[in-house]
Amino acid sequence: MIAFNTPARQWHEGLPIGNGHLGAMVLNDPHGDTLWINDDELWSGFPHTAEEESEGITPQLVERVRDEAKQGHYVVASEMLADATRGCEDTQMYEPFGKIDISMVHEGTADEADPKVDRSLDLGTAIVSARYRWDDGRSTRIETFVSAPGDALVYRIESTYAMNVTIGSSDGFLTGASAIVAGPLRGILELTGQCPGRHVPDADAPGKGGGDDYRGVGMGYAGLLRVQLDHGSVEADDRGRLHCFGATCVTMTLRTRSGWRGSDHMPEHDSSVVLASLCGDGEKDAWPTRGEYERLRAEHVDDYRRLYDRVSLRLDPDSLDDDRRWDMHRRLQAVANGDRAVARHLVCDMFDYGRYLLISSSRPGTQAANLQGIWNKDKIPAWYCDYTTNINVQMNYWLTGPCALPELIEPLVRMNLELLDNGRTTARRCFGVSGSAVFHNVDLWRKATAAKGDPSWAYWPFGQAWMCRNLFDQYLFTRDLDYLRMIWPIMCDSVRFCLGVLSETDRGLAVCPATSPENLFMSEGKACSVSYYSENTLAIVRNLFRDFLSGAGDLEDAGNGELPVGERRLVDDVRSVIGRIVPTRIGADGRVMEWNESFDEQDRQHRHMSHLYELHPGTGITRATPRLADAARRSLQVRGDEGTGWSLAWRLIMWARLGDGGHAELLIDRFLRLVDPDAAMGVRNGGVYANGLCAHPPFQIDGNFGFTAAVAEMLVQSHDGAVTLLPAIPDDWEAGEVRGLRARGGVAVSMRWRDGRVECSLESDRRQHVLVRVGGKTRDLLLEPGRTEGLCAVFR
Q1: How far is Cα 482 from Cα 475, in angstroms, rounded to an integer?
Q2: pLDDT at res. 285
Q3: Which helix H or strand E contains 109, and what residues bound it?
Q4: Averaged pLDDT score across all residues of the chain
Q5: Cα–Cα distance, 488 to 405 (Å, whole number)
Q6: Using CA atoms, how far apart are residues 312 and 355, in angstroms rounded to an integer?
Q7: What is the rounded CA–CA span in Å between residue 447 and residue 426?
Q8: For residues 97 and 165, what is the distance between their CA atoms, to the nearest angstrom?
Q9: In which element (H, E) is residue 649 found?
Q10: Residue 56: helix, strand or coil by DSSP?
Q11: pLDDT tens for residues 148-199?
Q12: Helix axes 290-308, 340-361, angle to 10 degrees
């Protein structure tokens, strides 16, 4: 439960709802309610080829930079690539649909007094509720949800006194709005808008503003908002607003549509055509009667709970959890003041919140969750609300495996399939090799080339190779061979690219030149981004190759024969080189080496943990590699415990991988730090806003998803060949219960623990032996489909 006893004073105190395609931030004010609307397909621009971009990266340039880096001329190498990436274009922008304003006044009253306000998001039903109560006995209740089955936002006001309600949009995002009266109890708002054309920013870095150039015209979009009263009347004005008089119940439904026709097709620019297609679905003839509202609500709750109810977590399961209905400001302040009981309850709610947010922003058939999921109010959002592939979009999907939500990764799979054509062009034009290369920023039009800016972020073509780790790891949780066949072309082309860019060094094969995402090192007194090679790029390649060989073996076993000739050769090529790749190295200071030399970092507490990829999300640093695990621990200690919101979540999951529950709890407290929504952008003061959304600052949703994945990692781990129970829980998590978590291999795990003892049950959809590790002891269990195996053990 995310609850408040005050109206939302601004967007960061609103409550998010969505169905993957349509989203809204609900502010719930008793005098002037506001809905900030989003449609996941609204982006600036239109398709354009890599040849149309000013792309300065060529195979010849990469070779010259490699030669300079090999000789230790890192300043020169960095400047050469910087000259090239400054001329690149950035991504297009994710755009808001618009804002719906709703004013409510009880008939015969001045409404001067402020009512008592209770508003909340019920994570169990995905419904935002608000109740306003006045001292004179008046009461108003509002429910808002976005239905996936109905693909509609539903907003319902019920009041004990007759109301006058005005619905419209005072915001400039929408270019057109017309109101229609369809009867005394019915009204329609037709909403149209136009996205900007191709956005070409004149700025040194995304998120920092600057001049803007818009080329051409962007896609049109439209919405149809229907209003139904129980009694009273509706009037329309010439400003595109509906006025409802004398109603005690008002039900509003909103459906939206974009002009998007696919990532490689020009969109429909004419919003009137989009509106006509929306009206052509019979929307004007469908009215939300009382029975229809109840049906929509029930279908929505059933559909949502089908996903959400798969997993549950409770800490202090015997407590009443009364604080869960506290105002979020009060709960976060209690955590800051050291109230451990409130902290435990809030951990459970934030764990659930991450699952809620992904269910609400990523469904099969929708676009993948971007930097803000689907919730954005700004025409020029921070970092353009794109898909940042050097950590952030991957973090969005870490929870799908452990939290039993495999359907929700489908948009990420589809995005990568759509990236293949542009990725192949990028690999060929920029590096002269086959396969698919995707740089660190992606948008709706599936940009795969480098983004404008410093090479510390702009020169990094391993976005798709990293996303393959997500895609294959999801397969390991389900062992769904049809799914593996679907992602296989993505993996094959990523492998081809990585094979093509490996070159010989004095220590083995490496990707040269290379960067470590967004980090800088010192050379000749200057901050440099380009090294000869980096641990991050090598770790991505190692893990990709390991996953590829594992997947190839499963496909061969399932097919009772050989892979196609081309794929068989690819397997042979990977086997011939995987053992020759430069291994993870430990520096003289005991830390994992980030670059080919033990440079001094410009920022020793940098937010990115890219050089520890083998610890997480990779699988190369485990309890079976104690020296590397110690080096990773030392690296984390030096990096420190501060960072952006998403960085805190990544640190948290890494400490969980190392089995350190005490340090994990410290990072949880850092993450649950209340951030002022007016705070400036920063890289040290991450936390959450009052509505629980992750503060970079500004808002980025990846920290919410990463937090949920990290809590799951504290409870169950399965990346190293065994299912480990309670590997990293803090001392004050003395009692708890979790149901439905998944371990790799298709194993469902439920358990209850108290005072150092755990009772666990495991289920599998196939016959298999599973190693279960509890408190340092390992047991071999035979799991049979349809049977539940249990065990009791001491975990401390």
Answers
A1: 10
A2: 64
A3: none
A4: 93
A5: 20
A6: 10
A7: 9
A8: 22
A9: helix 645-657
A10: coil
A11: 999 999 999 999 999 999 999 877 678 888 989 988 899 999 999 999 999 8
A12: 110
CB 128 within 8 A of CB 7: no
* Residue 626, domain member (yes or no): no
Residue 386 lies in a domain: no
How many other CB atoms are there within 10 angstroms of residue 183's CB atom? 11
**Residue bearing tokens 């009880």:** 106
Closest by Cα among 645, 778, 795 to 720:
778
Q: Is the pLDDT score of 472 beyond 70?
A: yes
Find, among 606, 608, 533, 529, the residue nearest to 84 by Cα: 529
Quick one: pLDDT band at residue 776, thresholds 50, 70, 90? confident
Q: What is the pLDDT of residue 126?
A: 98
Among 277, 239, 237, smallest CA distance to 259 is for: 277
* Whether the predicted model's global pTM rises above the 0.90 cut: yes
Listed residue (582, 564, 430, 435) closest to 506, CA to CA = 582
Note whether residue 741 is domain-resident: no
Domain enclosing residue 141, as ranges: 2-44+95-307
CA 646, CA 688: separation in Å to the nearest integer?
A: 10
Helix and strand element counts for the chain (H, E): 17, 33
Residue-by-residue DSSP string for 348-377:
HHHHHHHHHHHHHH--TTSPPPBTTBT---
**422: phi then psi, degrees, rounded to nearest 5:** -65, -35
Q: How many CB atoms within 10 Å of residue 663?
A: 21
> In the structure encoding, which two tokens stand for residue 507, read together?
């220590």
Q: Per the structure, how many domains does the chain have?
A: 1
Q: Is the pLDDT of residue 286 over 70?
A: no
Residue 40 three-state SS: coil
User: According to DSSP H, which parts of 716-762 are helical?
Assistant: none
Give the DSSP letter string of 134-203: -TTS-EEEEEEEEETTTTEEEEEEEEEEEEEEEEE--STTEEEEEEEEEETTEEEEEEEEE--SEEEEE-
- Domain of 186, CATH number, reads 2.70.98.50
Q: Give Cα separations from 293 to 145, 228, 281, 298 (angstroms).
A: 11, 10, 19, 9
pLDDT digits (tens, 9 = 90+) for 662-687: 999 999 999 999 999 888 877 778 99
**Would residue 411 count as lying in a domain?**
no
- Rounded Cα distance between 622 and 611, Å, is 15
Instruction: Tell me the pLDDT tens digit for each residue of 489-540.
Output: 999 999 999 999 999 999 999 999 999 999 999 999 999 999 999 999 999 9
Dig out the tokens for 51 from the structure. Answer: 């040849």
Mean pLDDT in residue range 740-757: 96
Instruction: Please state whether beta strands 521-523 and 508-511 pair in parallel, antiparallel, or not at all (unpaired).
Output: unpaired
